[in-house]
Amino acid sequence: MSAAFIGVDWGSTNRRAWALAGDGRVVAGFSDARGLMAVASGSFALEAAAIRARLGDLPMLCAGMVGSARGWASAPYLACPAGLGDLAAGLVWVEAGRTAIVPGLCLARLDDPAGDVMRGEEVQLLGAVAAGLAPGDALLCQPGTHCKWARMAGSKVAGFATAMTGEMFALLKTHSLLADFLTAGVSDGAAFREGVRAGFNGDLLSQLFRIRAAALLGRRAPEDSAAYASGLLIGADVGARTLSPGARVHLLAGPALGTLYAAAIGEAGAVPIALSSEAAFIAGITEIWTRRHAH
Amino acid sequence: MSAAFIGVDWGSTNRRAWALAGDGRVVAGFSDARGLMAVASGSFALEAAAIRARLGDLPMLCAGMVGSARGWASAPYLACPAGLGDLAAGLVWVEAGRTAIVPGLCLARLDDPAGDVMRGEEVQLLGAVAAGLAPGDALLCQPGTHCKWARMAGSKVAGFATAMTGEMFALLKTHSLLADFLTAGVSDGAAFREGVRAGFNGDLLSQLFRIRAAALLGRRAPEDSAAYASGLLIGADVGARTLSPGARVHLLAGPALGTLYAAAIGEAGAVPIALSSEAAFIAGITEIWTRRHAH
Fold first, then answer.
1. For residue A100, what are the domain limits?
2. Which residues contact B31 (CB under 8 A, 6 or more apart)?
3. pLDDT digits (tens, 9 = 90+) for B266-284
4. Are residues A80 and A129 in the same domain?
5. ipTM greater than 0.85, yes or no?
6. To the nearest whole percent, how much of chain A has pLDDT over 70?
């Protein structure tokens, strides 16, 4: 089996690249930490050449923050609803006929002046549907630094919301006056679940302070504070989605965050369904590759 | 008029000290930046001697974070409801007959394992009532790094909540991926009010991310993002208090934060009433001094 193209999921911190056959089968691949923050401005073409040196001299489709103003080139945000055909038609070619960047998506509701944006997640979301991992009308969740909640309708991304849940936990753990209390690891358990349920109640700014109060008053074991804080943030995130009882939430996540979000979604009375984000990305980028050929 | 004692409002960052007559009239005073973080452990007695060198060789009552584990000595937290008599009876003498620390307050509701704590604010809160600046049954708000909302009943602190509103704004402005968008100053205006109303809606983690999205999509003037973000946080804080229409909120704040909180409280349909935090502290510490004599 020979590869037809290279697909790259190129984020701010990490990067995953695969040499893929035309039907999406993986010929070769690797992942590394050469995300945007590790790549000097102006050296993205050199990076692409290095990827080709490893995976073959093939056309390349790149998705993710590589398409931002700080990346290789600024690709547009397509307005929702948008599907894989829209992404394929909107490819931005940074090396003629050789290397293209997948556009991002934006939410531009008339009644909301703020809107929302994503880059990279759209390939996973639409790929999960294309691969049959999730139905064409579904709620998908991608936990992370900036957690995405996407409503799929008719196999397109109809709308989405982004919560800075992961970034907030990192800020609190690293820079806040709570940092001294948040040194332990986080896992699903009684303290995490307690935090999730508290997070459902809203008033996040007060509930966060109470982590400190609970520690000072000796009301929570110090090693439980980080799990409680993580639960509080994930509970606030999940709770704000007002999930219907029994609603299915398709989770595109690694095992650690996937376990925590699945627990919180379950506490909310909904049903988490774990999907492979790698399989979803590969299906999505392959479909974009195929549709690009059809045009 | 000669001074009877020295009252010190001794926080983490700043310190205010007054030489006071027995009836609370100010004989002399100063403020500086020698809060806890500027004082080496073990040198608080030297600091007190320096205060006496400036204000007179008098007995001294200190309130605030000086009574925390990182301060001069760890004073207890008295459980709410608590009044000035309780604080006077709970003084912790760190120099016999010469220097005492006012205890803090804690909230220890049976149905809430977390609880809450304060140090220093209790003197202002109870002093505002003692001075007749606020009624004995009232809602008081002290904006700041950790904003306190206190429910006074029968001239005691019946209960309170702390929101890390100010700290959160500082974290976002200094360390977050929003930092690039939050460089402008904050004042009351259309962007701030828009943020306040958005903050009332909850889902803070998503609304914060949308500040970034709005900037990337060119939907908000870059110089308005900081005011909007401040409004969002203060709106989330005020909104979580579920104020009744027309409810009076007595504000103990400096002019900058006082103006912003007054605007947000007004947007919520309640009525802000500005009080002098200095007059409240002086009235509170004087009443503690007087009651200490009575025992």
1. 5-133+276-294
2. B14, B15, B16, B17
3. 999 999 999 999 999 999 9
4. yes
5. yes
6. 97
